[in-house]
Amino acid sequence: MKVAVLDIKGKETGRKVDLSDDVFAIEPNNHAVYLDVKQYLAHQRQGTHKSKERAEIVGSTRKIKKQKGTGTARAGSIKSPIFKGGGRIFGPRPKDYTQKLNKNLKRLARKSALSIKSKEKAIVVLEDFSFDTPKTKDFVQVLKSLGLENKKSLFVLGDSNNSVYLASRNLRGSEVVTSSELSTYKILNANSVVLLEGSLEGLQSNLNK
C-alpha cells in the first residue's frame, strides 16, 4: 500500500512509502483488540484502595452496655460496623489488576488497530522533523498544517526526540510516543495516527515477527 509522505507544512514531498499489507491491511481481530485494550486499562489501576475493617479501628474495647435487659440488640464493641466510626464490612483491599497476554496476541491486536485506522484513512506519514527549541506554538503549527488542531492525534517517532516531546506535552489532545511504546489503546483512542518516516521500518519489522 503506497502512501504519500507529507512535510510539516502538510504538503506532499513527492515521495511515497510502502506500508506493509501484513500490518496495515489485515482483517481486524476484534477479540484480540478487546483483550489488549482491557489489559491496558486494567494496568492503569493502582489497586491501592483500602478501608479499615473492624480489627484495624482504634477505639475502646470495653463492652458498651450490658448484654441483657436493654430491649435492644446486644453490642460488644464501639468498633462494630453498625456504629458511626466503626469498621467497614467487606471493604476494598489492595489488589493487583495486572493481566497477562502473549506477545503474538498483542502484535495481532496492534496490527488490527492499525488496519482499522488505515481503512478509516486516519493514518498520515510525515517526514522526520525536529525543533531547534521545544516550543508548543511550533508543534501547534504542525497540527494546523495537518488539519489536526482540534482532533486527538498520536505521533509515532522512530527514536526518542526530546524537542518534539517537550513541545507537545502541554497539549491534551496530542501525544508523542516511539514505535516501541505504541499500544492498541493509544492507536484507537486517536482520531489520526501520524507516523514519522523513521518509525516505519522498526514498527513494521517488530509487528511482522
TrEMBL record:
Instruction: Cite the InterPro entries for this sequence.
Output: Ribosomal_uL4, Ribosomal_uL4-like, Ribosomal_uL4_dom_sf
Q: Mind telling me which SUPFAM superfamilies this protein's record contains?
A: Ribosomal protein L4
Q: Does the keyword NAD apply?
A: no
Q: Which GO terms fall under biological process for this protein?
A: translation
Q: Does the keyword Transmembrane apply?
A: no
Where do the record's region annotations for Disordered lie?
45-77
Please give the Pfam families that the UniProt record associates with this protein. Answer: Ribosomal_L4
Protein keywords = Ribonucleoprotein, Ribosomal protein, RNA-binding, rRNA-binding
One GO MF annotation is: rRNA binding
> Which GO cellular component term is one of those annotated?
ribosome
Source species, domain of life: Bacteria
Family stated for the protein in its record: Belongs to the universal ribosomal protein uL4 family.
Q: How does it assemble?
A: Part of the 50S ribosomal subunit.
NCBIfam families documented for this protein: rplD_bact (TIGR03953)
The protein's name is Large ribosomal subunit protein uL4
Query: What is the protein's species of origin?
Result: Aggregatimonas sangjinii
